[in-house]
Amino acid sequence: MKLVDKIKSFPEWLLITLSILLILILVVISFKTNLKKFEELSKTYLTFLDKEYKENIQLTKTASSNFLKDDQVNILLKKISIIEVNKSLHIDLIQKLSKNKYALFTMFPFMSAITAILVFLIIQQGWSSCNNYLKAYFILFTTLTSLIGIYPEVYKQTDGISKHTKSFLDYKNLQKTIFNYSITAPIIEKDSITFDRFLDNINTQERKLITLIFDIEKKSLDKEIFNSVNGNK
C-alpha cells in the first residue's frame, strides 16, 4: 500500500508519461517478436524456392565437363555465381520488406480495436469530461494506428515485394538456362548456337534484369538535377 500511495503522490504528468513509455515499450516488444517470427517464415519459404541451386552447380560441373572446354566450364560457373549474388540481394530485400509488412499487418487490428474502444469512451463521456489519461492514450493509439496503417503504403512495400520476387525468379530462370545449356550444348551447337553466342545472350538478359532497387518519385526532386544530368539549362 505504501508503494501505491507513493506512486499516487507523483504528478499526473509524470504518471501519464511513464504509462505512455510503458505502452511504447510493449508495442516495440510486440513488433520485434513479430519481426522474428516472420523472418523465420520468409527464410524457410525462400530457401525452399532456391533449394536446387547447389545441386545445379554440381551437375553443371559434371555435365559440362564432358563436352565443354575447361575455360568454358569455368565461365559458366562464374556466371552462375555472379547471378547468385544478384539473386541473393533480391532475396534479402524480400525478407526485409515482407517481415516488416506482415509484422505491422498483424499489429494493426489490435491497435485499431484499442483506438475504437477509446473513441467509444470519449464519445460517451465527452472530450471535456474525460480525464487526462484517456486523452493521452487516445492521442497515442490514434498516432500509432495511423503510422502502422500508412507505413507499408508510403514505402510501397507490397509493390517492392512483388518487384523483387519477380527479379529473384528471373535470375533463377537465367541460372536454369545456363544449367540446361551445360547439358544440351552439343545439340544446341548443332543448331548453330555457339558458346560465345549463348554467353552473349546470357549477358544481354542479365543487363536487362539490373534495375533500381527502390522506386524514386521524380516529381519530388528538383528539376534542376535532371536538367544538369541531361545537359539542359
Structure description:
The structure is a single chain. This protein is mostly helical. Among the domains are: 103-155; 162-215. 83% of the residues lie in helices and 0% in strands. It has eight helices and no strands. α3 packs parallel to α6 (157-190), α4 (70-125) runs antiparallel to α6 (157-190) and α6 (157-190) runs antiparallel to α7 (195-209). The radius of gyration is 28 Å and the shape is rod-shaped. The termini are far apart.
Shape: rod-shaped
Whole-number mean pLDDT? 78
> Which stretches are poorly predicted, pLDDT < 50 over at least 5 residues?
216-222
Through-space gap between termini: 76 Å
SS class: mainly alpha
Q: Count of helical segments?
A: 8
What is the assembly state of the chains in this entry? single chain
Q: How many strand units?
A: 0
**Helix and strand run:** HHHHHHHH
Percent of residues in helices comes to over 70%
Strand content: under 5%
Q: Give a quick account of the main beta sheet: strands, pairing sense, barrel closure.
A: none
Radius of gyration: 28 Å
